[in-house]
Each structure stands twice: as structure tokens, then as C-alpha cells.
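3.2 Worked example (two chains)
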Amino acid sequence: MFAKRIIPCLDCDLAIPDGRVVKGVKFKQIRYAGEPAELAAKYSEEGADEIIFLDITASHERRETMAHVIEKTSENVFIPLTAGGGIRNVGDIQRMLKAGADKVTINTAAIKNPNLVREAGKKFGTQCIVVAIDSSRTKDTPSGHEASIYGGREMTGLDTLEWAKKVEELGAGEIMLTSMDRDGTKDGYDLELTRLVSEALSIPVIASGGVGSPKHILEAFTKGKADAALAASIFHFNEHPIGEVKDYLRKNGIVVRS
């Protein structure tokens, strides 16, 4: 049995040179949470399996990527780093990988140019290409879920499940699946959405959006069938440290890394 992964997510606002980590509710109501490189080092020491950095406004603002933040972080953090936000082409992916990222996540660019997923997978290896899907519930698609772009600012009409299947065919190595409806609410993951996608794909699915307690992470694995669980608020504001979460999971029969 593969160990389940616990992944802190650092949503980064690059309004200042080194960036700052922020957290919102349903992609709004932003709160300051810390400095990216410092938080990443803290989470690495606490036992995080990976860390995901997302530049939350790069695609919307058509800005350059956050390679300098990754470069600074990778000097002292040696667990896998995933970076996303503002990735538009193969050149952007290459810059992030050279800066020290182990994986790159793409959302808006993948929807606008699906061939980018295939091209990037062939050039860099599918294991480092993560497709992010920011999804909302809707009555307008067969699955009842719709993918969005530009940090949730624009709905696409794409059925979330069908899009997830498509990017797997294109060569994505992993899916980061965020429920926009649950993001920051602490009400728990959208387990129906998570399970729907997880059971339909053979590649790993990272559950994202809505964690308020260790129980919610347990449910992502047992009910949602996810391979990894992403969380932000409970770690950023010291509500449930990573060690506490892993101890809880072990006690409930989930295999996690030390």
C-alpha cells in the first residue's frame, strides 16, 4: 500500500519582492499567513511530504512566474516542491524546474491549450506535470461539476470529470482537485467530487479545498479515495500541526510517512 501524502499549500501573493502567503475563503476574504520560504522550511521540519506553491494572481494579472520564490526556498527545503500560477508554456515550466521545483502545476494554460500537457510531459516527464482543476458545482454539466480558470474568476463550461479524464489521456502525472465551493470554509472536502474523479482515473488525485480538522483529511482518503490531501488554514494558523494530523491518520489505519 502506498503511503498517503500530506501537502501544505502556500497561496502566494507577490505584491512584495519575496512574496507573502495568504489564505482566503472561496478564493476571497484574504488573510496574511507568513513568508513563503520560512513557512516551507517549518512544514518540512514538521513532516510534510511535499509543498505546493501557488501564485494566486499570476494568470489573472498575466504576470511572470514565481521562480525566485522557489529558488530561495529550495536552498533550505529538500522535500518535493510543486509550483504553479502563471505557467503559460514549456519555457515557463523549464524555468520553474531549473529554479528548484520538482513538479509544476498548470490550470488556465492547460484549458486554453491542452496540447501543452502532452508537450510538457514528453519534454520533462509526466511525473512532474500536475494539472490543477478548480471546480464548482453546477447544474449545467453531466457530472454536476464545472472547471474554472484564472483563479476561479472565469467558468469554462467544461465538465470537471470529463476534463480530468482528458488530461490523464494527454499525459498529466497527477491532478490537484480543488472544490471552490469548499475552499477555506473548514467544512471538509467535497467528498462526492473527490471520489468521482479519483475512481475514474488511474493517476493520483490530490484532494483540496475545505479542510477544518484531521477527520476531514481522513475522509479524503477513506471516502474520497484521494492519494494525497492538501491543506492550508489548519497548518498556517497552527490549528492542527502536521504531526498531529499524521498521528491521527495512523491511529485510524492510514499509512503515512514518518
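3.2.1 Second chain
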Amino acid sequence: MSSVAPARNHGPLGDAARRFLEGPPKKLLIGDKWLDARSGKTFGAINPATEDVIGRAAEGDAADVDAAVAAARRAFECKDWAGMDPHMRGSYLLKIADLVERNAEELAQLETLNNGTPISFTRATMPDVAKVFRYYAGWPTKLYGETNPSDGRIFNFTLREPLGVCGQIIPWNGPLSMAAWKIAPALACGNTIVLKPAEQTPLTAIRLGEFVLEAGVPPGVVNIVTGFGETAGAAIAAHPGIDKVAFTGSTDVGRLILKASAGNLKRVTLELGGKSPNIVFADADIEKALAASVGGFCFLSGQVCVAGTRVFVQQEIYDEFVEKLAAQAAQFPVGDPFDAKSLMGPLVSREQFDRVSAYFDVGQRDGAQLKTGGSRLGDKGYFVKPTVFSGVRNDMRIAREEIFGPVAALIPFKDEDDAIFQGNDTQYGLAAAVWTHDVSRAHRVGRALKAGTVWVNTYMNVDPISPFGGYKQSGIGRELGVHSIDSYTQIKSLFIDLAP
């Protein structure tokens, strides 16, 4: 597509979404009150499809984080939440899930408006958000300890207990999903929370906070501080009153958070960047692999940590695959995210637009061939064309660095060993994919790839029962599944003398 006419102002919003956007700037949730930032400052939320300000939110900073941590600490120490009947704690998570489901269209519209994800995707996401809360609603009754073998004079057992106050910092590329991934397990385990959404996308996190209060969750259990990473985010990472920080975002920021956590040795889980290898063997279902590969680097405009931006193609089919992938990418439906036909919307911000656009020149300077895209789309909004480079070497910057945009680097490989070697030749290890009809090869390559998730003949499947996280510099720890429970609990050993 050669042009785009994005929606103006608020797009075709329903009454509920419009009502939410009306009125004064959105406030911080501290305790059970919505409060202005102590500085009185606010910041604008931008519609990336139109570059218009669609609302304002309180600009929280260290003083507001202090207040939120104090509220969370009171809620944790009073045991109203951590000491609650676990069946009851699970019921609150179910209530939140019901509210998300009941207001799914409003949430989808707000998410599309604020980060540019096509409405077809945000509508499909809302049942998954509810599913995360429902999955974790079953966990409060299953936080088992153990009895350990000992002699008859001692009773030795363990208890699994919540960590305390959890700081949670979420990204802009999937605001509501990432909020659910962090809030739900923390609540299930009895923790209290200080959540900071990305400054680019504060709206749906605030709306979720309203649902938390509507569900009846006790005051101070969930606190939400909107603001900037350099101020509010840094204050959460370094705060001595926070027992654990969970962060999703770039590897560079993850390093800063890890350093800041050293003050009180708080627990840290990090879900960071990726440069996922998407490996296509000559015996694969080529048409299926092509469709998934285009979606793999265009989904969310490439602004997803598991994007399949390194496409490795076996030499025998490389030239054919390049031409077909470029042709499909050139026809990929990009446009107004409120148009049901659009499969790709804008990048989230001017900063992201400038960053991604710079790589168009970087790739060509390094010797890669631009097959399609490589430029802006339209003259309003942060739209870029899906971009495909061929003749890429794995040592080029477009193959090494996380671009976080719809840019694919196509790299040839000789055989299975070469695919594994090149696929693993990266600082990242979040996800990977393998396309082949050979079941034995699928198992061999899947085992050999150093990635937290490997898909075979599919791409981007996620389920709350399955752990998600990365190898190497793609992160520390796991989200979702049973393994996330370890990240939000600690183990206590008890020895009781039974001697008369």
C-alpha cells in the first residue's frame, strides 16, 4: 500500500471509551484513592496514528512512589490480603476477569487508540487477558509447602509465603496483557503491588485499576503510578521498601534495574529484548512459513520482543523465498488501526519512528539489499512500510540489534548445523521458530536452539499455563505457568521439637 489515511481525533470510539477519555487528567491510584501527582504535573497520551493528544495522566515521581509503597506496605503487613482465605483471594481475581470480559470492547478501543495496535488484534487480546486472571485465580489454593523426612523428635516442614511489596514496570507494546501477566500472579500469591505503566500508554492500566477497585480488592493491594521511566520507574527499581521488581522492556533498561536493585538485594525478574531466529528448512510447508514469517515481523508493527526478525532460509529455496516474502510484505495491509482490514498500524511514538527509520539506511550501508519498504507510509502518524532486506549476514547491525520495528533480515544457511550455529549467534535468547516436515529434525533443532520458547511450524503461540522468558540477555526468570509462582513467593523451613 502506498498511502494511509489514519483516523482523526479519537476514531470511531464507543460511548464507554469516550466517557473514560473525557474530563480532567487521569490520576494515580494510591490506596483506594485517585490522587494528583504531588508535583501537580501531567503528561499527554498520544494517538500514534494521528499524532494527536488524546488525554492526560498524572506525572508521578519519587514522592508518589514513596506514597504508593507506603500504601502497599500497610496493605501487606495488615494481612487483609496475604492472610485472606485463599478461596476468597481467588474469587477477586475471577471478578477482575469478569470485568475485563464485560468491558472488552472499551478496553480494545482504548488500547488501539493509545498504542496503534489494529482493533482486530486488541479485540482478540481481551479474552486472553481475562484468561490470565482466571488461570491465576486457581493458584491461591495450591501454594503448597512440603513435609520433610526427619527423626521422630522433629517435625520439619516448609511454607510458601508471599514476598511482600512488588514493583512492576510494564511496556507500551502490549499494555493490558503485560499488566495481567504481572498483576495476576503477584495477587494470587498474596503480594501487594506498585505498578508503573509505560508513559506512552497509561490509559488501559488506569482503567484496569478502576476494575480492581470495582472488584472490591482491599485498599493498597494494587497501586498505580503513571509517569516516566527516568523518575517513577527509577524510584521503583531503587526503593528500599520494595521487595521485588518485575520489568518488561529493553535489555539496556533491564541492566539499570538490576544495578538499582542492589541496594536492598530485592528480587528481580526481567523479560527483555530479543532477535528471534525464524528458521525455514527446504522441506517446510513454504506457503504456511511465508504467511507466518510476514506476520512474525509485522505483528504489532514489529514492536514485540519475540518478533521473528532474523529469517534464516535454507540455500536451496532462499531466492524463491526472498521474492515471495517481499511480495507479501509489500501487500501487507497497513493503515488506520480502527479499520478492521488493517493488520498493521503505526509505531508507538515519534522516538520509535525515528529509531526504526534510521535502520533503513544502516542496512543498506552495511551491504544488505532492500527488497521492499524502507520508508515512511503517508504523511501523518508514525507509519512505516514493512521492510525486507536480503543478502544479510548475521554480523550486520540489522541482524544483531533489536530494531523493534517491521524490519526482516533474510539470511541463508547451508544445513542443520549451520542453522543452529547462526541462530544461536546472538546476545539474545527469547524465542525461535523452526519450519520443517521432519519430526526428528524439529526435535533436534528445537533442543539445540538457546531460547526460552521454540515454536515448530507455528509462531507466537502463548498460553498462561506455559512459562515465558529468555536465555542469555533476554532476561532473568519466567512469567506465566507454575514457574512464575516461584518469582512471587519465598520458602520458609520450620523445625518443631516434638520431644515431650
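3.3 Remarks
The longest helix spans residues 119-137.
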